[in-house]
What does this fold into?
Amino acid sequence: QVQLVESGGGLVQPGGSLRLSCAASRISFSFYTMGWYRQAPGKQRELVATITSDYGIKYTDSVKGRFTVSRDNAKNTVYLQMNSLKPEDTAVYYCNADHSLSHTYYWGQGTQVTVSS
It folds into this structure.
């Protein structure tokens, strides 16, 4: 069965950095748009960043200039480098895989990111 496993979350002070990873298994990774979403307590899940199969990238406005999404197709892994973290970035971060043609999609289990002094 398809698995998306996120890692790299944790507690960090404002202004700090974290790097999230999402390792995918049992999918043809290179054919998927990979995305990072987040959900803060009491709020809806929101898109953070996506990277398509041909490396097209989009970010939500609030993270532009601070976050960088990348992928390594050889390792079936997508990354989210998060710099200059703010308390409002606190959320559970989820990895998503969306097939570029069929739009079959999968979710990871999430990893907690907490930005606090």
Q: What stands out?
A: The radius of gyration is 13 Å. DSSP finds no helices and eleven strands in the chain. The longest strand covers residues 91-99. Residues 46 and 77 are 21 Å apart (CA to CA).
